[in-house]
């Protein structure tokens, strides 16, 4: 059974400091998504830890997680396959690197082919 409201994230990550000179600074950096022409993406083929199956991995996206997920959804729809967005990477099942690179280039992204 999951506990409710008992994590540090619920408290904002800050609980207590014994340092009398400590000042809490809650200025979180606002991350904005860069324009496509300022993004430098890399397209990899990967089959490590995937039971020998190939996946196309796009790395290097700078921006909000929501925008990354939206781009991942576009790429999955384009290729007609499944995939996921994890740790700042878009993972597409299968070898669709050329198709994805062409699509991203048309959208204005700078895409570099990495690996063989």
TrEMBL record:
Keyword Amino-acid biosynthesis carried by entry: no
Family annotation (CDD domains): YciH_like
InterPro entries in the cross-refs: DENR/SUI1_TIF (IPR050318), SUI1 (IPR001950), SUI1_arc_bac (IPR005872), SUI1_dom_sf (IPR036877)
PROSITE patterns (UniProt xref): SUI1
Pfam families: SUI1
Gene Ontology molecular-function annotations: mRNA binding; translation initiation factor activity
Segments forming domain SUI1: 48-108
UniProt KW keywords: Initiation factor, Protein biosynthesis, Translation regulation
Record carries keyword Protein biosynthesis: yes
A Gene Ontology BP annotation from the UniProt entry: formation of translation preinitiation complex
Source organism superkingdom: Bacteria
Similarity-based family: Belongs to the SUI1 family.
Protein name in the entry: Translation initiation factor
């Amino acid at each position: 059974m999951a506990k409710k409201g008992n994590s540090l994230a619920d408290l904002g990550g800050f609980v207590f400091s014994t340092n009398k000179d400590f000042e809490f600074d809650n200025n979180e950096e606002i991350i904005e998504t860069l324009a496509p022409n300022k993004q430098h993406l890399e397209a990899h083929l990967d089959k490590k830890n995937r039971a020998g199956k190939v996946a196309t991995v796009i790395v290097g996206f700078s921006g909000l997680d929501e925008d990354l997920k939206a781009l991942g959804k576009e790429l999955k729809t384009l290729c007609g396959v499944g995939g996921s967005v994890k740790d700042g990477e878009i993972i597409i099942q299968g070898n669709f690197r050329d198709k994805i690179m062409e699509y991203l280039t048309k959208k204005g992204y700078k895409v570099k082919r990495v690996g063989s």
